[in-house]
């Protein structure tokens, strides 16, 4: 178990800076938050490049606190975020401790099930900022008023990729789904995206997770034989879409399909909230700041945790308040927006509390495109062509 | 007789310049091309393209026209060129990742925004020494200076403020919260108004520099253009303060604003991702850099019309016109 307070010292030392020397500051307002990361027992990933890092998510949160404090020193505001690691079994108790300390903004890095359970536990005592869970049910039938979804949903990711594939004129998809429930949930998002944008799923296949170790010495020899066999005798298709939330098979597919076809989804061209090589829209400065702080490239969960705490910081700056109730009301108001290095303002959907955001379509090294694609228009915001729009939402608060 | 006399005086100068007296050199920094394209402001033709270091963005010129300053962002310094020969004369320390800068009206010092380091660096262009480093908000970018040279404005893109810096003490004397990602700050010529653009917020804040209060927010609406694409960046004000031009980024438009009422009069269609702008000294033309179409649009200021586009280098970013 690991617990720490960041931000307090940064704010305090900045106070001594020249900027404030001749401006007597009123009492500093303190805005408190927590980052609760729920680590599950799981097998190591297929690629060691994806091995979990100790400060995953937390490093992004630390950068957000630094950014908030830099602004805060001009506004008389000081930010802190307590970092907590829990297991699915201890998460509830840890959340209770944070709530008992009076913390009313909790950034959550947890799976769908734990996110929902913690949202119900928190009730109206805190605002949760979901920085990991992607399930559409959390924004639909199981939506909770106290939860802001900073992580993009399955539907947004699938729609972002679908728009690009339609622009590319690759409308025929072979859908390969993993055998875990979350793989099936992601597959449902691709089926929906296909119907929405006029693509055809020519066939679906399920890749069974038969357990066992992920990577073994010379394992690629077997993989090289298995993947072409698994993908042979498919109807004619343009692109293979893999849904593999558990990291069981998708990274094996590129270049090993029976037919020479590109792979997208959970491998190949991957829709993401962020990518460590994104440099547009001021992203270069953001990446530099993060890498200086964390000594590693950024991951999606870092970006999402950063954005979650920037949302809190932006609300505090704009309202010039540290009152959690006032900040929460402002975040949920039509006046709220925040910048996130994606070329346009990010706002919160009032029907399911999902943060509207462009989706990056990335290969290993670079961003290939950013959705929404230009040809998809919308009466209120082009960003609402991604994910579940107001008329189709199943959420009622 | 009088005109005869003037002719005599002018003649040697014309011989020296060997070009029409009205023509000025226009310098366009090409962010991706790592070079500067030089245009002739009368013929609107490209004179030449010259390498200037890595990732050139901010570009300005000394009031006497003898030194051209280029922020070479990836080289972490400012390169100084002879504007006539485009030979590099020397470099200036800039702090890391210089993006935009502004020269004091007297020509010295230079105030540089270090986007990566939350600093404004003040550099003496003669002694080449750093005079001060001023801590500001996150991602400092836009730089403006009051006509009397007493106040320098820096905008910080993630902090969303215009910081007022006293040029005598190098201290921040006021902070004005504006909309998201403030990009650029420009005073009108009598110093009674400060225009600050907010790229993501989509607005221009008009600030009274005396009280540091926002007196008006200018918003933009272009039929058929998504609101998200309207991203104000560069701002220029005519000498008489009557016309304000605002580059609107990926909406591919320049807004023309009445400088007295601060109401939008018109939108001019220019190239793609219009970024920065510069007037000729006589304010006959306004040049705009269009980063995604690799060209410069030329606006006839009196007619408020785009009269030409000129192909320049890769991803043009900044532009300055020689004063003489």
TrEMBL record, chain A:
Classification via Pfam families: Peripla_BP_6
Signal peptide residue numbers: 1-21
Residues in Leucine-binding protein domain copies: 58-362
InterPro entries in alphabetical order: ABC_transptr_sub-bd_PQQ, BCAA_transport, Leu-bd, Peripla_BP_I
Superkingdom field: Bacteria
Keywords, comma-separated and alphabetical: Amino-acid transport, Signal, Transport
Similarity-based family: Belongs to the leucine-binding protein family.
Name recorded for this polypeptide: ABC transporter substrate-binding protein
């Amino acid at each position: 178990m690991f617990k720490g307070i960041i931000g307090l010292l940064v704010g305090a030392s900045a106070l001594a800076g020249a900027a404030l020397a001749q401006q007597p500051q009123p009492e500093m307002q303190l805005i408190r938050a927590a980052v609760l990361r729920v680590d599950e027992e799981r097998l190591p990933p297929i690629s060691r490049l994806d091995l979990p890092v100790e400060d995953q998510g937390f490093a992004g949160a630390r950068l957000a606190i630094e950014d908030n404090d830099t602004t805060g020193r001009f506004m008389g505001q000081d930010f802190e975020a307590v970092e907590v690691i829990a297991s699915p079994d201890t998460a509830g108790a840890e959340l209770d401790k944070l709530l008992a300390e009076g913390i009313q903004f909790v950034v959550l890095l947890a799976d769908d099930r734990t996110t929902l359970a913690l949202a119900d536990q928190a009730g109206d005592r805190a605002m949760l900022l979901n920085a990991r869970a992607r399930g559409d049910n959390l924004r639909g039938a199981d939506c909770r008023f106290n939860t802001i979804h900073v992580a993009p949903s399955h539907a947004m990711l699938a729609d972002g990729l679908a728009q690009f594939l339609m622009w590319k004129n690759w409308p025929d998809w072979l859908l390969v789904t993993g055998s875990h429930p979350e793989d099936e949930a992601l597959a449902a998002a691709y089926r929906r995206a296909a119907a929405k944008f006029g693509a055809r799923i020519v066939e679906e296949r399920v890749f069974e997770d038969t357990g066992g170790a992920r990577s073994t010495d010379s394992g690629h020899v077997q993989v090289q034989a298995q993947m072409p066999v698994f993908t042979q005798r498919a109807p004619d298709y343009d692109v293979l879409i893999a849904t593999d939330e558990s990291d069981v098979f998708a990274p094996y597919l590129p270049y090993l399909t029976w037919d020479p076809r590109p792979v997208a989804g959970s491998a190949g061209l991957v829709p993401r909230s962020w990518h460590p090589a994104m440099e547009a829209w001021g992203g270069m400065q953001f990446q530099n700041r993060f890498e200086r702080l964390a000594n590693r490239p950024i991951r999606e969960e870092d970006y999402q945790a950063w954005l979650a705490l920037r949302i809190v910081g932006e609300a505090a700056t704009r309202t010039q308040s540290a009152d959690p109730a006032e900040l929460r009301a402002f975040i949920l108001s039509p006046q709220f927006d925040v910048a996130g290095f994606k070329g346009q303002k990010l706002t919160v959907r009032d029907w399911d509390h999902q943060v509207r955001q462009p989706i990056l379509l990335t290969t290993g090294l670079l961003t290939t495109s950013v959705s929404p694609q230009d040809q998809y228009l919308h009466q209120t915001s082009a960003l609402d062509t991604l994910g579940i729009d107001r008329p189709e939402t199943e959420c009622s608060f | 007789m009088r005109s005869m006399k003037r002719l005599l005086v002018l003649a040697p100068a014309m011989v020296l310049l060997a070009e029409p007296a009205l023509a000025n050199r226009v310098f366009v920094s090409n962010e991706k091309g790592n070079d500067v394209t030089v245009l002739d402001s009368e013929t609107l033709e490209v004179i030449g393209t010259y390498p200037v270091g890595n990732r050139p963005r901010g570009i300005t010129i000394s009031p006497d026209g003898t030194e051209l300053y280029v922020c070479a962002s990836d080289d972490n310094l400012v390169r100084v060129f002879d504007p006539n020969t485009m030979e590099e004369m020397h470099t200036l320390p800039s702090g890391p990742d210089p993006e935009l800068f502004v020269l004091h009206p007297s020509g010295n010092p230079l105030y540089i925004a270090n986007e990566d380091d939350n600093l404004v660096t003040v550099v003496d262009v003669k002694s080449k020494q750093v005079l001060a480093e001023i801590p500001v908000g996150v991602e400092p970018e836009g730089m403006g200076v009051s006509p009397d040279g007493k106040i320098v404005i820096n905008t910080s893109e993630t902090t969303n403020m215009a910081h007022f810096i006293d040029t005598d003490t190098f201290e921040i004397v006021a902070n004005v919260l504006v909309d998201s990602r403030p990009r650029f700050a420009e005073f009108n010529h009598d110093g009674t108004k400060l225009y600050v653009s907010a790229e993501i917020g989509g607005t221009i804040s008009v600030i009274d520099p005396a009280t540091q209060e926002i007196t008006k927010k200018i918003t933009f609406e272009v039929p058929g253009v998504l609101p998200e694409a309207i991203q104000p960046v560069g701002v220029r004000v005519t000498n008489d303060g009557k016309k304000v031009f605002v580059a609107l980024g990926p909406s591919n438009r320049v807004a023309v604003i009445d400088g007295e009422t601060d109401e939008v009069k018109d939108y001019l269609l220019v190239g793609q991702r219009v970024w920065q702008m510069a007037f000729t000294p006589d304010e006959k033309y306004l040049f705009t850099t269009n980063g995604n179409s690799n060209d410069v649009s030329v606006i006839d200021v009196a007619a408020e019309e785009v009269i030409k586009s000129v192909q320049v280098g890769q991803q043009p970013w900044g532009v300055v016109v020689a004063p003489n």
